[in-house]
Specification:
Chain lengths: 309, 142
């Protein structure tokens, strides 16, 4: 019997496996009808200990498009967790109700803990400020869809680079693909954590840090915007001072390349002006859509579904 | 010089860095045991100049990883029938389970009590350990 596989951290998969997933997701995107019974009879457990409409619905959509079913909870208050049940007990019970489970939890390391007690594959659907690997997979698929490869691209990250787990995870993963330069655009207070910078530099990555979008706009192939999250601040004054920084609008992308793409993990607050939504370079809604297909590919991989029949 | 007799059976923690003897004594809760224990402080030492020593007249289980965390200069001597039976040098443990907690207030190990935090050593100079669950770094301090 094969060892049970989980996705807790993007590093759980080799770059070869990530490439295979991207390839499969593209195939599912172009020919979804071929896979609409791939997970017939299988159940996805959705264990959402904190609200996350987007991630949960994306997973549910993915499983339903594969012909499978879903069960779960979307708020810890409506589950037995509110009675004090431990993660270990919950996951052992869910292991007999579902064939695979996705877990979102506010505490960092909770999905890892769940994976130690589970008898089914566990997918980390986001754990506090730590990891959100399926967002990373979505981002990889989006870049690959529009650019065909990861190499030789200038990728810039803008906004909250200090607390933004999607940025940390994507940068780490792209660095495994030998991307040697990233442009980091953020206010000083929200710059990439020093520990991550040190580890990237140790791996031979060059980081170009600037404080305005305009000064690097013409160099960028992929611009990854992030939200400045209110809940990451200790006081409201700091949030109000910085929330308006780094708003992307038509004027700011005047000097941008014609084939640059603008990505965002969503939801946005005000960091991308609505006037940009019609620009062909704005791909963030398509990015959200692609998230369904990479999750479909992931579910079939972890369930070891035979797709050859 | 102050003289303390040898023990017949038990454990001698030798080469303790001066100042750490009392900390280890307290951590092992040796003030609460009912067998003879001795804490010697500032004892002259050829190798170290001064050192602390703890003698325990009983065979107790001591976690070498725990001692290594506090002071990796310690030698553990097991005494049997008044003679040195075994000598062990402690080392800074590469992996630690349950000996200290993760400094990340958002780490799951600080919430679910049945989970023992697990760490991997990332720097022996600063005694920095990476949490297996949240991956944050905790610097161990006695």
């Amino acid at each position: 019997m094969n060892k049970l596989r989980h996705l807790i951290d993007p590093e759980d998969f080799t770059t070869k496996e990530l490439d295979e997933l991207i390839k499969l997701a593209k195939e599912m995107y172009h020919h979804p009808e071929k896979y609409n019974e791939a997970c017939k009879g299988k159940i996805l457990g959705t264990l959402f200990y904190e609200p996350s409409t987007r991630t949960r619905l994306s997973f549910e959509s993915a499983m339903l498009r594969l012909g499978g079913s879903i069960l779960g909870f979307s708020d810890a208050a409506t589950s037995s967790v509110s009675k004090g049940e431990s993660i270990a007990d919950t996951i052992r019970v869910i292991s007999s109700y579902a064939d695979i489970a996705v877990m979102r939890h506010p505490k960092e390391g909770a999905p890892k803990l769940a994976s130690k007690y589970a008898h089914i594959p566990i997918i980390n659907g986001g754990d506090g400020g730590h990891q959100h690997p399926t967002q990373t997979l979505t981002d990889l698929l989006t870049i690959h869809m529009y650019k065909g490869a990861f190499e030789n691209q200038t990728i810039a990250f803008c906004g909250d680079l200090k607390f933004g787990r999607t940025v940390h995870s994507l940068i780490r993963t792209l660095a495994r693909y030998n991307i040697k330069q990233f442009i980091l655009i953020s206010p000083e207070e929200l710059s990439l954590p020093d520990s991550l910078k040190r580890s990237l530099i140790k791996d031979g990555v060059t980081l170009k840090e600037v404080s305005t979008l305009e000064e690097v706009m013409n160099e960028i192939d992929i611009l990854y915007m992030t939200r400045i999250q209110k809940e990451r601040f200790f006081n409201e004054a700091d949030y109000n001072r910085l929330k308006g920084s780094y708003i992307l609008d038509l004027a700011k992308i005047k000097t941008a390349k014609k084939d640059m793409i603008i990505m965002h993990p969503l939801p946005r607050v005000n960091e991308i002006a609505y006037e940009l939504d019609q620009d062909p370079r704005a791909v963030y809604f398509e990015q959200a859509k692609l998230g369904i297909y990479i999750r479909m590919a992931l579910i079939t991989k972890l369930l070891e579904v035979d797709l050859t029949c | 010089m102050l003289e303390v007799t040898s023990i017949k059976k038990g454990i001698v923690l030798d080469h303790i860095t001066v100042g750490n003897g009392l900390k280890i004594f307290n951590k092992l809760m040796l003030d609460q045991v009912d067998y003879p224990v001795v804490l010697l402080m500032n004892v002259p030492s050829k190798a170290m100049g001064r050192k602390d020593i703890i003698k325990i007249e009983n065979n107790i289980d001591i976690d070498l990883a725990f001692l290594g965390l506090i002071d990796d200069s310690i030698t553990v001597n097991i005494i049997k029938e008044g003679k040195l039976g075994q000598k062990k040098k402690v080392e800074i443990p590469k992996n630690v389970k349950g000996l200290f907690s993760c400094h990340n207030p958002r780490c799951i190990t600080n919430f679910d009590d049945y989970v023992k935090p697990e760490f991997e050593l990332v720097s022996s100079d600063t005694l920095s350990y990476q949490c297996e669950y949240c991956e944050e770094i905790t610097e161990y301090k006695i």
